[in-house]
Amino acid sequence: MSRILYTGTKNASSWAFRAWLALKEQDVEFDERVVDIRKPQRLGNLALIAEFSPPGAVPVLIDGDAIIYDSLAIMEYANELGDGSLLPTDMKLRAQTRSLVAWQHSGLSNLCPRLSFESSFYPDRRAMSANERTDTKRLFDVFEMLLQRNGGPFLVGGLSLADLMFVPTLIRIMSHAQNLDTWQLTQDWYRLLMSRDSVQEWMQEAMRLPPVFLDGYRD
Ligand SMILES: N[C@@H](CCC(=O)N[C@@H](CS)C(=O)NCC(=O)O)C(=O)O
């Protein structure tokens, strides 16, 4: 197999998760090399990645002589290698999908840095702060509106890159949130995503790993 995806530790690497999901969902064959991104070995392992991929980060996909780095580039490439169904054919819906993808990819909110992907797997999780609840409301209101307007079951109708981009974010939020009654469509959408073979495969492995504890979680 000349196609190799370098991913990260499965309970710590949300960006690698997204790229991996797009390849799986498009039935693209690839070999996987898991890079241990936990400290203290993180720096040394990523230095090895930097020898062939300028950002020195995961994910990175090697396909023959092409080196494709950054989750979003890999997701788009996976879609093109596959049947292209992860971006809608309708131009406006496609632009909407790309807006959602770009929103997540460019930071989304203050939610992700403090509510790390790693923390989704902690046995003893803290309650969300008031700010985190406010950010969740803002985001979930958007999801609820999109699921209603586009008719579901996914954000823009059929499964798209936008859904896959948000999977790790949903996992972070759902593992910490308390009362989600206001967002019934969003809950159904989350359950549907979590039931997919691709998501299950990654998560089953992630849940078997020892938790990666980060500083600042309880501050
Ligand atoms: N924008 C990049 C972010 C990738 C990223 O931050 N990956 C983490 C692991 S999930 C990493 O390798 N960080 C090391 C670094 O950026 O130096 C992408 O979307 O792929």
From TrEMBL:
Domain GST N-terminal stretches: 3-86
Domain of life: Bacteria
Domain GST C-terminal: 90-213
PANTHER family in alphabetical order: MALEYLACETOACETATE ISOMERASE
Protein name: Glutathione S-transferase family protein
PROSITE patterns, sorted: GST_CTER (PS50405), GST_NTER (PS50404)
